[in-house]
Amino acid sequence: MSRFGFLGLGIMGRAMAANLVKAGHEVTVWNRTPNRCAPLAELGAKVAGTPRDVVEACDITFAMLADPQAAQEVCFGDDGVLEGMSPGKGYVDMSTVDAETSRQIAEAVTEARGRFLEAPVSGTKKPAEDGTLIILCAGDKGLFDEAGPGLSCMGKKILYLGEVGQGARMKLVVNMIMGGMMAVFCEGLALGEKGGLDPATILEVLDAGALSNPMFRGKGALMLKKDYAPNFPLKHMQKDLRLAVSLGDELAQPLHSAAAANESFKAARRSGLADQDFCALYDWIRKDS
Ligand code: NAP
């Protein structure tokens, strides 16, 4: 049985690492803010002082970090992943980053004769807790197979998409669609409200027809209660839109709607909503746009 490591115990990482421990795996964790390791230690995980210590102690190390900058710092920084890397070890980065960041990390890990898999996820806090994420893997196929017993504790659907970068791209496409849907959903509710419609009735009408979907249903109910407790922080949604728009630039693909959604999320982020759930965009759209 592999010894698993886990770096990054935020909203997603703590639930994903907990599922590895609960499934009986030997797990060593690290988080930049050390006290976030305590609940994992209580479940039975070992706690290490640096990413390097985790990688040294484990066969396969998973990471779930905020953004490209965090992924790079944890990999390339002092006492980072690369310093613990040695031949045959595996590094599986599950953070949502751009393909270029993923490729840089893959190249460095491979140069150190380690193996790399990118594995960003679709699904939020509850699917992370339930082990029902959709995991979008790309990179070393042998590592994909070996990491299977760990990945299957975290996800219900695990795809292998080919070379490094394709998992990152799939994730950005999916979240770009989600961010765009959320932006126009918020605008529709705000428009209806200004026009004298009851927002609860708008939700009821949407849910009865072809536009019914779990996001409108789940987030819509929370938005009407102004419950913006973060499951998926707004700052991360804006980061994903920014990275998707940048991919559009790179590939000369026009993204008019996604670029507009990015501007809305950017303004909402600046207005103090960065750490609220991404559906808090509604608050900004109702007040400011
Ligand atoms: P989060 O709660 O904000 O957690 C971010 C994690 O990254 C924390 O462990 C944080 O450490 C760490 N971190 C941030 N900057 C760092 C740095 N410079 N060096 C080292 N560690 C750093 O975010 P999350 O919701 O778990 O999301 C994690 C990733 O999954 C993101 O890429 C996000 O886009 C993606 N994602 C999220 C969801 C969701 O619904 N939440 C769904 C799918 C994908 P500290 O504790 O020290 O701050």
Considering the chains and any ligands shown, give keywords for the structure.
289 residues; Rossmann fold; 57% helix
Number of helical elements: 14
Shape: globular
CATH class identity of the largest domain? Alpha Beta
Under CATH, the topology of the largest domain can be stated as: Rossmann fold
Q: What gap, in angstroms, lies between the N and C termini?
A: 54 Å
Topology as a string of helices (H) and strands (E):
EHEHEHEHHEHEEHEHEHHHHHH
How much strand? Answer: 5-15%
Present as ligands are: NADP nicotinamide-adenine-dinucleotide phosphate
In the CATH classification, which architecture of the largest domain applies? 3-Layer(aba) Sandwich
Number of strands: 9
Name of the CATH superfamily of the largest domain: NAD(P)-binding Rossmann-like Domain
Give the helix proportion (percent range): 55-70%
Low-confidence spans: pLDDT under 50, at least 5 residues? none
Radius of gyration from the alpha-carbon trace, in angstroms: 20 Å
Q: On the 0-100 scale, what is the average pLDDT?
A: 97
Structural class of the helix and strand makeup?
A: alpha/beta
